[in-house]
Every structure is written in C-alpha cells, then in structure tokens.
C-alpha cells in the first residue's frame, strides 16, 4: 500500500518497518535517536518499497539540502549538454542532486533564478547566461563555467580563450595562411573574449590588415547565415576559425553546397572538439575543452564552498589543445 498518487511515503515505510513515522524521519534525516538495528530495519523497508526522499520537502526542512542549482542556456550548442552530463556524474559521486533551470529567449536570468527559489539549494553552477554580475552572487556559493567574472564572491572554471585562439592562429599561419576570418559567437562575454583573443593573435603575427571578424552566434543557424554572407561577398578567406563546432560544421555544409571544398579552398577550425567535429564529413580540426573535467572541477569547487572549505584560487583556467583533423591544410598557391 502506498500514499496518494502512488508515491511511497514515510508512513508506508513506518508500517513496513513496524516503527513510528517520527522514527523513520529520524533515520532518513540521519539524525541521532535511533539504534543501529532500527536504522537497518527502516532502510531495508525503504529499499523494499522503493522510497525516495522528497528533495524539495527536505530542503525546506532547514537542513543542508544537498541540492545544487544549475542555470544553463537552451539552444547554445551541444557543448552545454556535454557539460550537463558531466555535472550529473560529478554531483552523484559527491552525494548531491541537481536542480536545472534553463535560460531561453523568453526566460531570462531573473526568471530562471526565481524558479530555483522553490528549492533551498546549497549553491549554484551557471553554464549561462554569460553575465559579469550573476544575480545570486554573494547570496550563496556561485560557480560560473566558461567565462571570466570579476565579482569576488563568484568562482570561475573556464578554458583559456587566449591560449586556444593563439594555438588556432599559430597553426594556420604555420601552414601559410594569411587571410583568416573569425566567425564570432555574438555579443556575449565568451564571444567577446574569443574575438579579442583572435585579433590579438593575428596582430602578433603582423596580420592586422588581413584579419576579419564576421558576426555569428552559437547555433548552427548562425553558422549557416555567416557562411552565406561569406559566399555572397565573394572574397572568401583561406581559413575560418569558428566560435564552436556547431557553427563550424554548419559553415562547412553551406560551403559544400556552393561547391567550395574544405580544406582545399577554405581551411576550417572549430571549438569544443565535440562529437560533431569527429563525425563531420571532413574531420574538423578543433580546440579541446574537456567538458567532463570542467564539470568535475565546477562541482568540486561548489561543494568546497558549500562546506566552508578554504579555497586558495578563485579562478581555475584549463589550457586547451588543438586536435588536428582533415579540415586544415596549406592554402592554394594563388591565395
């Protein structure tokens, strides 16, 4: 027999174990007041019935909830979903659950934060939106993944845009490319960071006059629009560095439709080293971001903050590596 709606309740567990509901509550809250034998009997009954504690009710009861809020953007590419998968795995290892709150075009950071208030979560991991002043900063532990934040109460786990973009430009220049275009990620903090890193890397090689930035975005449709713009303008670069793999593969698809070959006519570099890069028709050279490691470090940091452990360094920056595939080669002799 189970409670209303088919959900197993504390009363069901108490009846199966032959103890009071209050005693079951003590066991489930890991509070003192029950013998080892009683605890074992109650836990066995709970397992037999398939009882799962109500995380929301537990969080409202005044004790540590073991809940981590996660705010993330929808429609920003496959990389964020790889991050989410890594967060679930890392949180489970540490005995925490995740509460997800998406950010969409019609649901901004404020609304996403408001929906999380239904739960007394212990800390927040932000995969988006990339903002310089997270709304919940200073009110509880906050870790952002992917971009730099100056706020002293916000921790950062990210990949170095500067190192990654320098590696991409260095590789192309070593092949003989001079006319290189960056398809940027739009008006976001990460997009701006990679754009500035591209400009700096090109200037370092004395290529300030031949560099070019095409406005883009984070989704495949942004890559398609940018590719059509490049084709319509008629003055194709010899190489393109895209904001991410999603936009890079979209560009490759549009170029192929126009009879423009990658890499013979245009070399292409993406960012993230996602499954899309490995499975694209022409293997995509891409910068490795290690989403599982970023997620592990983010969970480790938020749990340290939740438990009041000393943190020596507020920002963790991983150094990306360039994974070479078939999408880059030397430019044609006439280029």
UniProtKB/TrEMBL annotation:
GO terms for molecular function: DNA binding. Gene3D superfamilies: 3.40.50.2300, lambda repressor-like DNA-binding domains. Keywords: DNA-binding, Transcription, Transcription regulation. Residues 8-62 form the HTH lacI-type domain. It comes from the Bacteria. Signal peptide: none annotated. The keyword DNA-binding applies. InterPro entries: HTH_LacI, LacI/GalR-like_sensor, Lambda_DNA-bd_dom_sf, Peripla_BP_I. This is LacI family DNA-binding transcriptional regulator.
């Amino acid at each position: 027999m189970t409670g209303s709606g088919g959900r197993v309740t504390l009363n069901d567990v108490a009846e199966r174990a032959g103890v009071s509901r209050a005693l079951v509550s003590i066991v489930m809250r890991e509070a003192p007041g029950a013998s080892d034998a009683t605890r074992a009997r109650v836990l066995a009954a709970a397992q037999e019935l398939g009882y799962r504690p109500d995380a929301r009710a537990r969080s409202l009861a005044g004790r540590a909830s073991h809940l981590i809020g996660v705010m993330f953007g929808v429609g920003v590419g496959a990389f964020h979903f790889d991050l989410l998968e890594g967060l679930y795995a890392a949180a489970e290892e540490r005995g925490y659950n995740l509460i997800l709150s998406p950010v969409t075009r019609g649901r901004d950071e404020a609304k996403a934060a408001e929906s999380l208030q239904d739960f007394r979560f212990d800390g927040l991991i932000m995969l988006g939106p990339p903002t310089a002043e997270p709304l919940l900063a200073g009110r509880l532990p906050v870790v952002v993944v992917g971009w730099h934040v100056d706020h002293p109460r916000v921790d950062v786990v990210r990949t170095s845009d500067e190192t990654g973009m320098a590696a991409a430009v260095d590789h192309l220049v070593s092949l003989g490319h001079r006319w290189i275009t960056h398809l940027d990620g739009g008006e976001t903090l990460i997009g701006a960071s990679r754009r500035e890193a591209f400009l700096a890397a090109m200037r370092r090689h004395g290529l300030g006059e031949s560099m070019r930035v095409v406005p883009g975005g984070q989704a495949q449709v942004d890559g398609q629009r940018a590719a059509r713009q490049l084709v319509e303008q008629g003055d194709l670069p010899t190489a393109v560095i895209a904001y991410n793999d999603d936009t890079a593969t979209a560009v490759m698809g549009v170029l192929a439709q126009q009879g423009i070959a990658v890499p013979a006519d245009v070399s292409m570099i993406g960012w993230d080293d996602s499954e899309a890069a490995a499975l694209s028709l022409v293997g995509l050279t891409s910068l490795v971001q290690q989403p599982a490691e970023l997620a592990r470090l983010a969970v480790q940091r938020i749990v340290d903050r939740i438990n009041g452990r000393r943190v020596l360094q507020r920002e963790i920056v991983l150094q990306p590596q360039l994974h070479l595939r078939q999408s880059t080669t030397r430019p044609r002799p006439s280029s």
